[in-house]
Amino acid sequence: MPDTSPDPTTRTTTDTTTDKTTGATPDVSPALTDAPVVLHVVRGGFVESVHRGAAVVTGPDGQVELAVGDPSGPVFPRSSSKPLQALAMVRHGLDTDGELLAIACASHSGEAFHLDAARAILAGAGLTEADLQNTPDHPYDETARTTWIGAGSPKQSIAQNCSGKHASMLATCVVNGWDTATYRDPEHPLQRVVTDTVAELTGGAAPVAIAVDGCGAPIHAVPLTGLALAFGRLAAATDGPERRVANAMSRHPEYVGGTRRDVTATLRGIERCVAKDGAESVYALGLPDGRGVAVKVADGSPRGASVLLAAVLRRIGVGGGTADDALAALENKPVLGHGEPVGAVVAALP
């Protein structure tokens, strides 16, 4: 999964854990505290663990059509925010399209074609890898990572899954004459327009919290309902920057994820959808009819979000043809015993 560094949660209720970084007692979102059991971990026909979570479907008019748990609670969407961040960049002069715009929305696997695309964005802006400030890492894809390490290459920013987003942020700064050395600062002009765009697309309210994402860029806490609404709006757009972002993702799905990623299979199989996975078990998807879906597994386990998303999509009637292949890829979370499948993570929606 992309961006695996943990972030603090936000908003209401009764958590008594002290945040070691601030000394404060953080609020806990009702999307977490009021979350019902939504997933079973089954081994040999026996449920050995459960995961709680929240899910929501919004209609083209923005109304909630399906809710599991309390989706009004805010969450950090983590990398599911990337299409919204990319939209802000396009609105402010980012002049990329196709696969180069798709990788701005990506938590890519670090395959060679991903790195080539990120480098192309930098070169087009007159920049180099040295200008990137995202957290150095090895490629996410197992094959690419093995090759990278085998070649003696250290962790590098270009190989980390957010390098396309960061390259695009830098390119947007160059277009506008904004400082490139401080582009991650929440008060930087780039990050301020990103904050405004996230607020607009998710319902108009200012984010309840802004923190540092795993890659070093700001991340905004928004209601799960707002995240679904934003993806529905992107997928239903007929023109403008929103359509450019949606087309880039749906037409170049391998750049959003990788050759062996379920988000790639989803974008490829569900016609004209917009989908993005995020760390701490978040997943969001927009359908071309304007419906939006967002899910969050409360404990952040990476094995659950795709299964929960597939269950919600099936419940609202998505399926048939290539969509069935996409749903099967989302649901493919086997439980292993001695290296062999002996069970699976399965949906248990209330």
TrEMBL record:
Name of one Pfam family that matches: Asparaginase_II
UniProt cross-references to InterPro entries, sorted A to Z: Asparaginase_II
Region described as Disordered: spans on this chain: 1-31
Record's compositionally biased regions (Low complexity): 1-27
Superkingdom in the source lineage: Bacteria
Protein known as: Asparaginase
